[in-house]
Amino acid sequence: FPVTIVRFFSFSWISIFQVLLSPPFSPLSALKMASLSILFASAVSMAFLAYTLSRDLKVSAVAGFLYVTMPSLIVRGVLYEHIAVSMAFVFVPLLLRGVWVLTQIHSPREVVLLGLAAAGLSLSYTKMAVTLMPLLMVWTGFCLSRARSARILPGVSYLAALGLACVAGLTILLPALAESRWAALFARDPLEGWQRHYSFKTAHIVTGK
Predict the structure, then answer these.
(1) What sign has the CA pseudo-torsion 120, 89, 47, 103?
(2) What is the chain's alpha carbon radius of gyration, rounded to the nearest angstrom?
(3) Between residues 8 and 48, which one has the greater pLDDT?
(4) How many CB atoms lie within 10 A of CB 135?
(5) CA angle at 107 for the pair 105 and 111, rounded to the nearest 5°
(6) What is the pLDDT of residues 170-183, one digit of tens each?
(7) What does the alpha-carbon distance between residue 181 and residue 174 come to, in Å, rounded to a whole number?
(8) Taking a C-beta distance cutoff of 8 angstroms, is the pair 129, 176 a contact?
(9) Which of 40, 47, 49, 57 could disulfide-link to 93, CB 3.0 to 4.6 Å?
(10) Is the separation of the CB atoms in 164 and 112 below 8 Å?
(11) Which of 12-16, 36-40, 43-47, 204-208 has the lowest mean pLDDT?
(12) What is the reported pLDDT for 185?
């Protein structure tokens, strides 16, 4: 189905939580716990980025808190239809961190981490990965301007990370893209159901009735 193209990793994570926690907890409780785990992981990843840049634990803690409480993340983390989208926010700070670190040191481990972060973002929400590319290019240019070594070394590291990301991500995305040709993006009945649901919800918010 088309949703497997853009949210494979997100729905896999949620499904794992529901399977592991389903005996003692209801599926809805497991879904909420998965959402909380995503929010926690997002805060940790942003704190990790902030600490790499500042080397200050207080700055890292504040950055993680502000990141996890921003509206674009906290709203998606509690809405049942957008929980999977919030998984992508875990990988954005890790991606930015990896781009920076490889301009400061040459480490095969950091190359692998950057490639996995890029693949994780693509498998969580491909649309966000695409829209992030302009910002990522600007950030990469800034990082290269602060490189401690010849720029050819970070460039080679970026290419290696890109290759790893393609291997890790495209092996899942390409089969899903082929499967999407067999599915309709929308069926009329579910679309009408969504319209009634959100129309009622909007009217309830506005009128309070």
Answers:
(1) positive
(2) 19
(3) 48
(4) 11
(5) 110
(6) 777 777 666 666 65
(7) 12
(8) no
(9) 49
(10) yes
(11) 204-208
(12) 53
Structure tokens at 88: 């992508």
Q: The tokens 């716990």 sit on which residue?
A: 33
Location of structure tokens 């990141």: 67
Write the burial class of residue 129 (CB in 10 Å: 0-12 exposed, 13-18 middle, 19+ buried).
buried
Q: Quick count: other Cβ atoms within 10 Å of Cβ 123?
A: 28
pLDDT (0 to 100) of residue 204? 45
Q: And the tokens for 103?
A: 């301009």
Mind spelling out the 3-state secondary structure of the chain?
CCHHHHCHHHHHHHHHHHHHHCCCCCHHHHHHHHHHHHHHHHHHHHHHHHHHHHCCHHHHHHHHHHHHCCHHHHHHHHCCCCHHHHCHHHHHHHHHHHHHHCCCCCCHHHHHHHHHHHHHHHHHCHHHHHHCHHHHHHHHHHHHHCCCCCCHHHHHHHHHHHHHHHHHHHHHHHHHHHHHCCCCCCCHHHHHHHHHHHHHHHHHHHHCC
